[in-house]
Specification:
Blueprint (H helix, E strand, L loop, with lengths): L1 H16 L8 E5 L2 E2 L5 E6 L1 H4 L3 E2 L1 E4 L5 E12 L2 E6 L3 E2 L7 E3 L3 E3 L3 E6 L5 E12 L2 E12 L6 E3 L6 E5 L2 E7 L4 E6 L4 E6 L4 E6 L5 E9 L2 E10 L1
Parallel strand pairs: 3-13
Antiparallel strand pairs: 1-2, 1-5, 4-11, 5-10, 6-9, 6-12, 7-8, 7-11, 12-13, 14-21, 15-16, 16-19, 17-18, 17-20, 20-21
Amino acid sequence: MLMKIGKITTLLCLLAAGTLTSVAQLSWVYEGKTLSEGETITIADNADNLIKGKYIHIANSSDDPIKAIVSKNESHNDGLSPMMCTTSCWPGDKTPEFTVPANGQYDEFHVMVISAGAPEGGEAHVAFTVEGGGSSATVNVVFVLDNTGGVNDVTGDGNGYGIAYASNVLTVSGASAGQIVRVVDITGRVAASMPVDGDGVQRFDLHLGRGIYLVAVQEAGRTVAVQKVIVR
């Protein structure tokens, strides 16, 4: 009993002295959704809209304001140049310090994406990490440039199969009974998997979120067709 009391007393003393502090919680928010640590989101648009800036908000769940910075790390680039902005924009890999309000949200962080040498399309994969107050949070963003004007674009070798997605419906033509249609998002998560019940055109009622997906037709464990679908 004396040992337990001693440990509790020591802990209280450390807290009183400020040696142990609560960790301030920073997180990313996109389109009203609080993202999990390291989550990947896809932002796809044409060059005119990407250069206007895409906003990703930063939330602070602690009772104190946090002075923070954001750094970026690019792992893939097809001729796109993401530039971080708060009240102004900078070409470097870190923003100047800014304040995220207590129990609130910083709404000024956004990214301008400049197209250079990618007239029709391309991708940039960027990790953004916000740090401050003993806390950090990372979001992975796939920027997709598409100047073709399509709403939902399909690219890739369909190998004789027709694959399209519009109005929440995935249409697959050329499939036959016994095959499986599998939809995988850019993180590798299986978003949907449906058996083909008969020959001919198959329609599947799906509500895919915005992003990039691979739609594969499989037979006996072997992929016979695959196409990339961009959902806006």
